[in-house]
Design brief:
The complex is a heterotrimer of chains A (141), B (323) and C (576). Chain A is α/β, with parallel strands linked by helices and 141 residues long. Chain A has five helices and four strands, in the order βαβαβαβαα. In chain C, a hairpin with a 4-residue loop joins strand 28 and strand 29. Classes of the chains: A alpha/beta (141), B alpha/beta (323), C alpha/beta (576).
């Protein structure tokens, strides 16, 4: 059976979640691998959430926030951006391919872009194969 | 001190440096109080007991065991399980038993990687036959055995049930004495699973350096790169200090020695993953909104995983490198 | 500890969800999760019977937590929270799983969609286990309103509010009231004077005891929350501190710059003008070429910047009718002049508008159709002896021929764009823009003048292109919404703010600079950070920045989100 990755997606309430809803109201079709977790702002996305997702079995994590300059809370997305870069570097050190984590900006009107992003992310993760974090972290061999 | 019957106490080291055992000895003249209150029934570093002596004990024979060191090999695990069986109160003593500690950094590699480095590629090694430690070696006289070196380092509570955690690298002796006295005097003990001998508040609370809200970092610096006035918060000087994410109780010893906190006392109960929390806090302080500049600034942190998880790697969410 | 008793409701949404998600299977499987007391599927959860079912079950089965798996929480979260309240349960003991907008409408494989829906519901159930009761905070509504923009929309809204006896601060960036309507000669379809519409409004506003008008005014930042906003405005070198309970944003439009379309040679050929320039000429009663002579042939090109993927895909909605209006006006002013309408599609919706189109087409006006998808018309200078100034070259769709239309004057019907400073205003008041810079409404159909920020309303062309009647309707709708809240006197505000656990906070002060609303301050005495819950808007960024975990983002706590993640991956019933 073809590998169907699970991708946890943290979406900010104001832009990205609304954008994802718009993809729905516009009946755009995209890959079903995304599992959305709503947060008020991408600035709420604690690196802990990302690592936890991988630990629980996510093959990829997609964080979306408002475009730079458009954050509903002014600059939460920049906080997210900084954490994202730190996380990527940390992931590489831990042997966890940084491409499994993606940060993208999706506005409330970008339903089409969200659908494309979901498809692209699914493709990227499919090409990377299953993420081994969950099984590797098991305490007993 | 009340004339209660003496308690039976054991101290054991797993994958450890010996510093924890020394911290027990550091009670100095209070050692007399300890000996007055407790019989030491097992302490390999100081007293000559054999494993078979422990095996011969009844279950729950020992009142208190301080297990220091991480679980690196099958011997560590075997004795941890043995002591668990024989002990009423098992304390994960010190950073290694608590969170994996410095030996836990071995989780950046695996058994093969460590063996290759230690027995082959290290600069002082000549090993043309590529000899590696074996768990069993047949000799004319019989079979020699060695404990199995595990693929990764585990914390004590990843192999046995732990009653309390007494953190530190090593734990502050004063804290040990407090905890010890609480146990021997029969004081009411905190709920099982608690961290004892440390504060719930993190280090900044007891750190005497001046702190402001000016935590903006344009450039990360190593401690030797700053002209430290001894008063300003390390973070405000661009030096990564684990203080905010690390329990107090150590007396801010490193800070008093003008070195930033490295995190040996571990996280408060409210932080799920101390490294991730600190990474998040530090990233937030970066003074740039430009992706390229952010990356440049982050590149100054040469080893984020080793910095943020120096003592806690095996207990963290991503507890080892994926090889 | 109180036993957790969860009720889960999986909505069919008619066939919207049920045709792509096996809702019965989802409900049946979820019923087996720990703490789930009851799990049902139902045709329309948001209907009265649906809500009544929740209320009844809460009472009968002593439920203390509810999960509804249906549409987006952005649509019905409040509906169901209300149902919980009606049943005497704290409204925050509720979580929604979005299996319509983010599952059934976007996937076409029923099995995959069902698996995904199940995961999302498992996440929601796991999360709701950690929900805690939060008290809504009721705050008094300051009856004053700030209206941003002094065009026909802002004026209408201001009067509606002021006539009901409420203070209005009308803030206008320029030195004049009236906005773009002030530059219009006649309105369509009745060909009435725009001044007749506008002047009484301006007069009333200027003389209304409840309206304070601030011209030449800018707003940097609005603080506070619904019912209690405040802002310092700069007006004519002076600063004023204003306090108000609601805001109507009516910042209007900016006309499209036709210089962006090179084939029209705007500002290169002297007699290529915009619709606004023609309005001015009509208003002055002097339609002449740049050299002062009378144009013998006038062409009007439609959809300049509208309905074109290179510029704006949207329709600007008023240009067709304005162009017809121009034809009428020009026909009367210059009876001998040839008039050409070069249009893409004629859109004459609205009351009296199709009739207006029909009557105009009888007035000796030539209608020619260009291909909006193909090359746009090209305006070039004509030969010296051609007898006209310019030639407009394009493929005429109705005849199927490439033609050149002669013209002495070309009028470009420029598109409406959102106001060039819409973004700055959005930041100041905390609302969002669509991709095309118009403000985004809370719900396109059910709540078109509200925004996702409580107490901030949008009206007029700042929300999207529209004509005067629609703008005024929105202005009055927004005003009516505000009057309703003023009449209630109080409003319930979200309490999903951040809160500091003083037993854990170490006083590192990392959080203080993180807050964009300066809601966090430092208590020197206690050596802890303190969140001002009035200023906090609940983004939760400080919660992620706090290295100790002392800051909790209420309703988005670490344990709630982490448990939701666990739920997404919980082993139970991964197979459908």
């Amino acid at each position: 059976m073809e590998f169907e990755p699970k991708i946890v997606s943290f979406l900010c309430n104001w832009c990205s979640y609304t954008g994802a809803d718009l993809a729905g109201t516009s009946r755009m079709k995209y890959a079903s691998n995304i599992r959305v977790v709503r947060v008020m702002c991408s600035g709420r996305v604690d690196p802990t959430f990302v690592l936890k997702s991988f630990r629980e079995g996510a093959d990829g994590v997609l964080i979306c926030g408002c475009h730079p300059g458009d954050c509903h809370y002014h600059e939460g997305n920049y906080k997210c951006l900084r954490r994202y870069h730190f996380l990527k570097k940390y992931m590489a050190q831990m042997g966890l391919n940084p491409d499994r984590l993606k940060l993208a900006w999706i506005s409330a009107s970008e339903g089409k872009e969200f659908a494309q992003l979901a498809d692209e992310m699914a493709e990227t993760i499919k090409s990377l194969g299953p993420c081994k974090v969950k099984e590797e972290m098991e305490i007993f061999d | 001190m009340s004339q209660k019957p003496k308690i039976k106490m054991a101290v054991y080291w797993g994958a450890a440096c010996g510093g924890c055992c020394v911290s027990v000895l550091d009670v100095h003249e209070k050692l007399l109080d300890v000996v007055a209150a407790a019989d030491l029934v097992f302490w390999p570093i100081a007293l000559d007991f054999k494993y078979k002596d422990v095996e011969a004990m009844d279950d729950d024979y020992i009142d208190l065991t301080l297990y220091n060191g991480a679980i690196r090999n099958s011997e560590n695990e075997h004795i941890a399980k043995l002591l668990r069986k024989k002990t009423k109160i098992l304390v994960a003593y010190g950073s290694c038993a608590h969170m994996g500690g410095i030996p836990g950094l071995g989780n950046f590699s695996d058994r093969k990687g460590i063996f290759d480095r230690a027995y082959q590629t290290s600069e002082s090694t000549v090993n043309e036959e590529k000899t590696r430690p074996q768990t069993e070696t047949k000799m004319p006289e019989g079979t020699l055995t060695l404990p199995e070196f595990y693929n990764d380092v585990k914390t004590l509570d990843q192999v046995v049930d732990v009653d309390y955690y007494l953190p530190g690298c090593p734990p502050q002796t004063e804290r040990l004495v407090e905890v010890f006295m609480a146990i021997v005097t029969g004081a009411e003990l905190p709920p099982k699973g608690s961290v004892v001998g440390a504060l719930e508040k993190t280090l900044c609370d007891e750190c005497e350096r001046e702190k402001t809200d000016e935590k903006v970092i344009k450039e990360f610096k190593r401690p030797w790169e700053i002209e430290d006035d001894g008063k300003t918060c390390f973070l405000e000087q661009g030096v990564i200090c684990m203080g905010p994410a690390t329990r107090g109780g150590c007396g801010a010893r490193c800070i008093k020695g003008n070195a930033p906190c490295r995190g040996c006392y571990g996280p408060p109960s409210t932080a799920t993953d101390p490294g991730a929390k600190m990474m998040s806090a530090i990233a937030t302080m970066i003074d740039s909104d430009d992706p390229e500049e952010i990356e440049k600034i982050i590149d100054q942190v040469v080893d984020p995983a080793g910095t943020f998880y120096r003592f806690s790697l095996p207990s963290s969410i991503i507890r080892k490198t994926i090889v | 500890m109180e036993e957790k008793r969860i009720g889960v409701y999986v909505c069919w949404c008619g066939t919207n969800i049920a045709k792509m998600v096996d809702v019965e299977a989802v409900a049946a499987k979820i019923a087996k999760l720990p703490n789930v007391v009851i799990a049902k599927d139902y045709k329309y959860m948001c209907s009265d019977p649906g809500q009544e079912m929740i209320v009844k079950d809460i009472k009968e089965h002593k439920l203390n937590r509810v999960v509804v798996s249906a549409c987006s929480p952005r649509i019905h979260e409040l509906t169901f929270r209300k149902a919980l309240e009606n049943a005497g349960l704290n409204q925050y003991m509720f979580e929604m799983a979005n299996i319509r907008e983010q599952v059934s409408w976007v996937h076409d494989n029923r099995e995959e969609a069902t698996i995904k829906a199940l995961d999302l519901v498992k996440g929601a159930v796991n999360r709701v286990n950690f929900h805690e009761a939060l008290d809504k905070r009721s705050v008094d509504i300051n009856p004053a309103t700030m209206v941003i923009g002094g065009g026909v929309t802002g004026l209408s809204a201001a009067l509606e509010l002021a006539d009901a006896g409420n203070k209005v601060y009308l803030v206008e960036k320029t030195g004049n009231l009236g906005g773009h309507v002030a530059n219009i000669d006649l309105t369509f379809p009745g060909l009435n004077s725009a001044a007749e519409v506008l002047e009484p409004l301006i007069y009333k506003v200027n003389n209304h005891p409840e309206v304070e008008v601030y011209l030449n005014t800018t707003i940097d930042e609005v603080f506070g929350y619904v019912g209690n906003f405040e802002s310092t405005i700069k007006s004519g070198g002076k600063e004023y501190e204003l306090k108000f309970g609601n805001i109507i944003v009516a910042t209007g439009l900016t006309p499209f710059d036709p210089g962006k379309i090179s084939s029209y040679n705007y500002e290169k050929l002297p007699d290529v003008i915009t619709s606004l320039e023609l309005e001015k000429m009509l208003k002055e009663g002097n339609v002449v070429k740049k050299d002062g002579s009378e144009p013998k042939k006038i062409a009007i090109i439609h959809c300049v910047g509208s309905r074109n993927a290179d510029y704006h895909e949207y329709c600007s909605r008023v240009c067709c009718l304005s162009a017809l209006k121009f034809s009428n006006q020009l026909r009367s002013a210059l009876p001998e002049t040839n008039l050409f309408q070069i249009y893409a599609d004629m859109r004459a919706f609205g009351k009296g508008c199709e009739e207006f189109y029909a009557s105009t087409s009888k007035k000796d006006v030539m209608f020619l159709m260009y291909d909006q998808q193909g090359d746009l018309p090209r305006i070039s200078k004509a030969e010296e002896d051609a007898g006209y100034e310019m030639g407009i070259e394009f493929y005429e769709k109705l005849s199927g021929e490439d033609i050149i239309v002669p013209a002495d004057m070309v009028v470009l019907m420029v598109a409406m764009e959102a106001h060039e400073e819409a973004k700055e205003v959005a930041h100041a008041v905390g609302i969002s823009l669509c991709g095309n810079e118009f403000y985004i409404e809370r719900h396109p159909k059910l709540d078109p003048v509200a925004t996702t920020t409580d107490g901030v309303y949008i009206a007029g062309t700042c929300q999207g292109p529209k004509d005067i009647p629609d703008s005024v309707s929105q202005a009055k709708a927004a005003a009516a919404r505000i009057l309703a809240s003023i009449a209630r006197g109080t409003v319930e505000v979200e309490v999903t703010t951040a809160v500091v656990n003083e037993d854990v906070c170490c006083g590192c002060q990392t959080c203080i600079k993180v807050c964009p609303y300066t809601a966090i301050s430092f208590d020197e005495e206690k050596n802890v950070s303190v969140v001002n819950e009035i200023l906090c808007k609940g983004c939760g960024t400080c919660g992620s920045a706090c290295p100790t975990g002392a800051i909790r983002a209420r309703h988005f706590t670490d344990e709630q989100i982490l448990s939701q993640i666990e739920g997404l991956f919980s082993k139970e019933m991964q197979e459908v």
